[in-house]
Specification:
The structure is a homodimer. Chain A is of the alpha+beta class. Chain A has a single domain (9-62, 89-206), classed as 3-Layer(aba) Sandwich (Trna Endonuclease, Chain: A, domain 1), CATH 3.40.1350.10. Chain A has six helices and ten strands; from the N terminus they run H-H-E-E-E-E-E-E-H-E-E-H-E-H-E-H. Chain A has a six-stranded mixed sheet, with helices on both faces. A two-stranded antiparallel sheet of chain A has the order 2-3. A two-stranded antiparallel sheet of chain A has the order 6-9. The longest helix of chain A is centred in the first third of the chain and has 14 residues, at 40-53. Residues 1-33 of chain A have low confidence and may be disordered. Chain A binds chain B through residues 52, 55, 57-58, 60, 62-66, 68, 78-87, 90-91, 95-102, 104, 128, 131-132, 134-137, and chain B through 52, 55, 57-58, 60, 62-66, 68, 78-87, 90-91, 95-102, 104, 128, 131-132, 134-137.
């Protein structure tokens, strides 16, 4: 199994075994190798930056919510937070706007090869996705099977339904394959997830505003 | 001049001088008096909560971005952040979804009575609003003239134009009146800003997708 998360050369050396991954290989410095060695979050952040620079979409990751209790203001230096606590999030990690559509999504990864455990999602994320769907947002999850280097953009409706299903603790890879748009990690952007969003928008428009 | 921000009884005692404010007076505990004594941020947060519970819109304030450097994990107690720094924000404070529309806004208040200083907005907020406008988001600012207890929902396009105008350091109250939808603070929600958003949506649809 490939080590994960990994930025080590070990991953790179293995590339002869997986020739198709090398299609985006670049010899310049500081260039990512099709997202290799990056976490899913890094891949999405890079893609969001690309989309923003190209004026294709404006999507940001939300900061981690923190309850600040004590702040020091040292002379000739910037403020230092000396006591703070993590707060419960009430939303998903990402939202933004694309061609007038509201996008909202959560990204999760697993090392598993055959299924994705639903406990990766928290109830507040599921509830938030439900709320946004009711407001006609384009809501989805990006699921990374990191050992397989496969990435899926899955409509929130599928994950919500699975999450609330009694005694269902995971979704299988084949279920994810059936309900998602698979995205190949590339060079620019690292994870071109708007391709999947375009599919969802087309589907919605065909279904008369229903997703 | 009314003290601000104020939750003190002094404000309340003055209410006989301003009888129209009392229309929403309630004798129950923990009930806000039409937003009196609340900051603009508190009013918006309360309104967002109301809109969410009523399934009218899903809008959240983004957490303050913090760079976390050191975290302690005490036994039998939750994690404590012991060193962290404020990071530069890259967006506005609020975004969300309403009837399929992407909403993005910043809220600012002034104690001034005749003008609103543009230095209240930071460049990154102006740039972010521009980016979201290009993606057809509904972008605006909520400006509170707290001494006057007047609240305006102002299209981002007006503020952006004023902000980039050389030698223009503020917008006058009459300019704000001309370009905005004024919102009366009420009981539920405290600041019914979606009324203004409906105006913007109607205007946009009349103008064929242009705002």
């Amino acid at each position: 199994m490939v080590k994960y998360p990994s930025g080590s050369l070990a991953t790179f050396r293995k590339s002869t075994e997986e020739p198709k991954i090398r299609t985006n290989f670049q010899h310049r410095k500081n260039v990512s190798f099709s997202g290799r060695g990056m976490t899913l979050e890094q891949m999405i952040n890079e893609s969001n930056k690309y989309y923003r620079l190209k004026e294709m979409a404006v999507v940001h990751k939300k900061p981690t919510p923190v309850q600040i209790v004590k702040v020091d203001y040292p002379k000739r230096s910037r403020a230092v937070i000396r006591e703070a606590y993590f707060r419960q999030e009430s939303t998903t990690d990402y939202n933004g706007v694309y061609k007038g559509y509201y996008l909202d999504f959560e990204a999760k990864e697993t090392k598993n090869k055959t299924n994705f455990p639903l406990k990766n999602f928290h109830e507040h994320q599921i509830v938030h996705l439900e709320e946004c769907l009711k407001q006609q947002g384009i809501c989805f999850t990006i699921i990374g099977f990191t050992s397989l280097k496969r990435y899926f953009v899955t409509p929130a409706s599928f994950i919500i339904k699975a999450w609330w299903t009694k005694d269902k603790s995971s979704v299988t890879l084949s279920e994810v394959e059936k309900w998602s748009v698979e995205i190949k990690s590339g060079f620019q952007p690292t994870l071109p997830y708007l391709i999947a969003v375009d599919h969802f928008i087309t589907d919605r428009n065909m279904n008369n505003g229903k997703q």
